[in-house]
TrEMBL record:
UniProt-listed SUPFAM superfamilies: Integrin domains
Main location: membrane
Annotated ranges, domain Integrin alpha third immunoglobulin-like: 126-324
Family annotation (InterPro entries): Integrin_alpha_C_CS, Integrin_alpha_Ig-like_2, Integrin_alpha_Ig-like_3, Integrin_dom_sf
Domain Integrin alpha second immunoglobulin-like as annotated: residue spans: 4-120
Membrane-topology annotation of the record: Single-pass type I membrane protein
Cellular compartments annotated: Membrane
Species this protein is from: Ilyodon furcidens (goldbreast splitfin)
Region described as Disordered: 369-392
Transmembrane segments: 335-357
Pfam families: Integrin_A_Ig_2 (PF20805), Integrin_A_Ig_3 (PF20806)
Protein name per UniProt: Integrin alpha-2 domain-containing protein
Alphabetical list of PANTHER family matching this protein: INTEGRIN ALPHA (PTHR23220), INTEGRIN ALPHA-IIB (PTHR23220:SF73)
Amino acid sequence: VSDSVLVGDDQSVLLSVSAMNDGEGAYETELVVRIPEHTHFQSSQGVNRLVCVQRKENQTVVVTCDLGNPMKQKQKVQTGLLFSVSHLEEVESHITFSLRVRSKNSVNSSSNQVIVKVQVKAEATLEIRGGSVPPEVLLPDLDWQPGVNPQRLEEVGPLVEHVYEIKNQGPSSVNARLTVDFPSTWRHHFLLYVISTPSEESLSCHTLNTSEVVPLELLGNFTTVSQSIQQEETNSFRQTVHVNCSSRETRCVRFECDVMDLGRGFSAVIKVSARLSMDTLMQTPYLNYDIVSSASCDVTSATSKVQPLLLSSGHTQTQFSVVWRPPHGEKPVPIGYIILSVISGLLLLCLLCFIFWKLGFFRRTRPPTDDGDGDGEDNGQHQLAEESHMTE
């Protein structure tokens, strides 16, 4: 018999059956199997394939298989009965099959009853991923005009959204919790203004530390950067600061969202929207930021009566960058590019020298000497004298 079945997955159960007649011949012998609810007979497999029919007897669904008429003495039948099983959400712990052999004999017309239990389990795998829109903000932003006390969200700075999606890979439907930590301040100066608590149709979200969500009318009181921090951070040109919620220097807003009845193959999306504080960034020019939010998801329970033995979980991060353009259009060349260019130039020079050497470019041709010329003239005169003598 199959060991177990999973809630939410359409699957099959194979019962291996062995029946033997230890007595006299049994007439109109048949195997009777009482099956659980939402179970359907598919086929008979194995050495002895039986003819089986699913029907109702006394308001109970049974499968009857013909074993022979008669089933002879000492005759043994081995077969496999394949069933499809579904809709296991209301099952407590297992499904039960009841098997019995019966015949039309007046004596010992029914065999002993065999109970087969198949365990029901719940399992689910959650997948989480995230992204930032936009992934990068370039400064200075010529479209943004600074304001003393912002009255509208557009006056705070550009919109940044972090989107997280959890997907249930199944097979069981579950209830899950999604937790998002979103940075708001770094070293006590304000970076991101969170607009509101995220919510979707399938989510129920709330904010744990509401003190980090500053009202818009008080935002101007939180954007002043101390002179010492400003000087320290701008001394190093194009320094990059990493802002994440695992750092003690960063304060974050935490959201918790509950997702109910997340079925196999379905997803839930949470979107955190915030405005980048341009007033703070303009006070620390040429200081770049890598700002990271993080999210984790956990299965809290299954929607079925059977609960999973192992609760699935996942974790991911989403990053966006604040990058200052170089002044006067200058673009710094990374030192790695310079080293790579020098090495490439030397290799190319060596290759050209090797090719020219193979073509004989470096071979020298010696000019003829005076001694060599004299010998050539004597040889020519001697040859002309011999030709004149032969003519005479």
